[in-house]
Amino acid sequence: MDWMLKDLAESVPQTRQVVVLSADGLRMAQHGGDTDAADRLAAACAGLQSLAGAVAAELPHSEGQMRLVVIEMDGGFFYLMAAGAGAYLAVLADDGVDAGLMGQRMRDLVLRIGEHLSSPPRQDGQAAR
């Protein structure tokens, strides 16, 4: 999966880091940045996707599922996209990134490998079978 994440990062200028994570905040794969930073990002994303789901539940006819979160910050952007059952794709990008291109490339990646990104729920600290 690493080469696909690298392809995303290289196809969108200004991409800093790409992380695939499970819903419980565990890093499954990464490109760019160091492992500790990717682990911190994955853990933060678990909380963010939970908050986004709670907000989505307030919409009429919503099942409370988060699809995409985009945050603009000083110096750049953060993207979090649902990427299969229990899996998410997160991207950090510098200021000046083409937001439309990033969204398109992330969706393309999720469509290509979404089923391979799925992370089954954990039971007693172990992945369910």
List the helices and strands and how they pair.
Layout: H1 2-11, E1 15-22, E2 27-31, H2 35-56, E3 68-73, E4 76-82, E5 87-94, H3 99-117, E6 122-123, E7 126-127
Helix pairs in contact: 1-3
Walk me through what this model shows.
The protein has 129 residues and is α+β, with helices and mostly antiparallel strands. The protein has one domain (2-118): Beta-Lactamase (2-Layer Sandwich), CATH 3.30.450.30. Helix content is 40%, strand content 29%. It has 3 helices and 7 strands, in the order αββαβββαββ. The protein has helices at 2-11, 35-56, 99-117, and strands spanning 15-22, 27-31, 68-73, 76-82, 87-94, 122-123, 126-127. The protein has a 5-stranded antiparallel β-sheet, with helices on both faces. Strands 6-7 form a two-stranded antiparallel ribbon. Strand 6 and strand 7 form a beta hairpin.
| Backbone CA Rg | 14 Å
Whole-Å distance between the termini?
21 Å
Q: Helical amount among residues, as a percent range?
A: 25-40%
| Biggest sheet, spatial arrangement of strands | 2-1-5-4-3
CATH class: Alpha Beta
| Low-confidence runs | none
The description of the largest β-sheet is:
5 strands, antiparallel
Number of helices: 3
Give the overall shape, derived from the CA principal axes.
globular
Number of strands: 7
Mean model confidence by pLDDT? 87
